[in-house]
Design a protein that fits this description.
220 residues; alpha/beta; Rossmann fold; Arc Repressor Mutant, subunit A; four-stranded antiparallel beta sheet; 8 helices; binds calcium ion
Length: 220
């Protein structure tokens, strides 16, 4: 069962989203301000976060920034009436997985929720899988076609992030914010350096470079 945290201060929209998701079998919780959103999401009791940007206290992007700084890797879909390109970029750079401008159709939200949760469904006790790669989250070890590979903590975190979003393109900025938590400036080439390390250990073909966009963990 997937648990979804809905952060929305407009009661009408919160109810619309909650009722819709409940009718599809999701367990939901609604909070209406940034502080509660931050506390709930950092409890790690939820599998996905639907986050409004305009909130009465701390705005959604600040909540997201704080969560990523704390290494909370929950998938995040941003909902916002501000549909300008710059907001979209700010949301994605801030570590969001997706962005849905208001107003939106429930079916569209549902499709995105299912897409973002897919990675979590594939996660079982033995770890995260992508093709012949298994990441054991308890021992923090990688298995490549059954052969154990030693990864440093940072390499493992990068592999884990790519694996959780397998088949999706992640930009350097997204990887920086999720794995390094803004410790580095956006111009840093640390992501490319670590991708090189990972390719050496896990196999070069496993991580694809998507020109001008970022990197993708392949599953085929
Ligand atoms: Ca709002």
């Amino acid at each position: 069962m997937n648990r979804i945290l809905i952060v929305e201060d407009e009661e009408r929209i919160a109810t619309f989203v909650q009722k819709g998701l409940n009718s599809k079998g999701f367990v939901t919780k609604v909070v209406g301000d940034g502080q509660s959103a931050y506390h709930e999401a950092s409890s790690r009791l939820h599998d996905l976060l639907i986050l409004d940007i305009g909130l009465p206290d701390m705005d959604g992007l600040t909540v997201l920034h704080r969560l990523r700084e704390e290494r909370v890797s929950i998938p995040v879909i941003i909902l916002s009436a501000r549909s300008s390109v710059s907001d979209k970029v700010a949301g994605l750079v801030g570590g969001a997985d997706d962005y849905l401008p208001k107003p939106f159709a429930f079916e569209e939200l549902l499709a995105r929720v299912r897409l973002r949760l897919r990675g979590h469904v594939l996660e079982d006790q033995s770890g995260l899988k992508a093709g012949g790669l298994i990441l054991d989250l308890r021992t923090r070890r990688a298995l490549v076609d059954g052969v154990a590979k030693d990864l440093s903590a940072r390499e493992f975190a990068l592999a884990e992030t790519l694996c959780r979003h397998r088949d999706q393109v992640l930009s350097r900025e997204q990887l920086l914010s999720q794995v390094w938590g803004f410790d580095f400036d956006p111009g840093s080439n640390v992501v490319d350096v670590y991708i090189r390390y990972l390719r050496k250990k896990l196999g070069a073909e496993r991580i694809e470079t998507v020109r001008g966009m970022g990197y993708r963990m392949r599953t085929d």
